[in-house]
Write a structure and sequence with these properties.
Structural class: alpha/beta
Strand order of the largest sheet: 2-4-1-7-8
Largest sheet: 5 strands, parallel
Number of helices: 7
Order of helices and strands: EHEHEHEEEHEHHEH
Number of domains: 1
CATH class: Alpha Beta
Amino acid sequence: MIVMVAGVYGVGKSTICSKLSDDLKLNFYSASELIKNEQGFSTWDKNKKTGKIKKNQDYLYNAINKKADENFMLDGHFCLRNKNDNIEIIDFKSIQKLGIKAVLLLKEESEIICNRLMNRDDVKWSKDFISDLQKTEEEQAISYTTENIIPFSSHFVNEYDAIKSFVAKSFFLGTNDE
């Protein structure tokens, strides 16, 4: 079973997934790392401008297919920044192939995300672009989960208890807090 932890660049997906992994004893994988490992290189730069988005989804599918018997969280996206500096939506058919069974969307204030990206990658991002990207990510996540009739939850990253509860329930786990 796969629970997708979605959100824009710099929202805190890896940080939250790492904490959930420790607390719930679940593995997590970054879609970008799986893609990079599968094809041997990345098609994005430090500005997150991504080329060959459709082909990358094929590499992601191949990497996930190798983990068919494993339950894990997947840190990923419903839309990306393409090479032309535009928001590109990932085709739902590509996502469906992955076998996602629940989606957790992480959110944060655009200004905070911009600061994180500057500190992490030394890249300046527009608050308006991050806001638009986050809005599109949320719209796509809601649309995808509605269309595919799978559980969905959306939280700001500081709502850890609610995040943990959703993920635990998605994997049918009990937490010590309940």
